[in-house]
Amino acid sequence: MNSKGYFGDELREGSIILTLDELSTKEIPDSLWNNEELEELTIQKTRANMQWSTRSPLSWYETVEFTPPYRELSDKVGKLKRLKSLILVDLDIKTLPESITQLKHLEILNLSFNKLELPEELSKLKVLKSLKHLILIGNHYDPHEMEEYQKEFPNLRIEYKAEEN
């Protein structure tokens, strides 16, 4: 694939934006997981547009009881060995596959507005030594656990709640 995503978006070489609503089967094509040169992957429900959108306050996401449907990220994500940026926002993902630990070059991971229970999922991310920026806004978290995780990884920028003024 050259500098265009699956749907014609202008991208840098080695980048793909996959929009689930534009796939006829709503399934991620197996060919995606075989792209060994891929460095940046964004999977989104709908195409981003230039209009303003609104969301519930972040405090709502932190306390709401998550209900199905849930999506699963394929265990094949671990095949993307050169991946540096993985953006999976608002996909209803409840758990991360164990293979995410194989993404040794991953620097940016954005899992915002999914249905993750962070204490359980953070242990999978501890082996990602190249990770520089972790974005977890809009998921369930324990403030004490997040503080401890930040202490354990002081060079990792973690965003998980609204900035306090």
Main β-sheet description: 6 strands, parallel
Strand content bin = 5-15%
How many discrete structural domains?
Answer: 1
Shape: globular
Level of helix content? 10-25%
Give the spatial strand order of the biggest sheet.
Answer: 1-2-3-4-5-6
Tell me the distance between the termini.
44 Å
CATH topology: Leucine-rich repeat, LRR (right-handed beta-alpha superhelix)
CATH architecture descriptor text: Alpha-Beta Horseshoe
Q: What structural class do you assign from the helix and strand content?
A: alpha/beta
Number of helical segments? 4
Q: What is the name of the CATH superfamily?
A: Ribonuclease Inhibitor
Topology as H/E string? EHEHEEHEHE
Low-confidence stretches: 1-10
What is the name of the CATH class? Alpha Beta
Strands, total number: 6
**Radius of gyration based on Cα positions:** 16 Å
- Average pLDDT confidence is 80
Protein name: Leucine-rich repeat domain-containing protein
Keywords: Leucine-rich repeat, Repeat
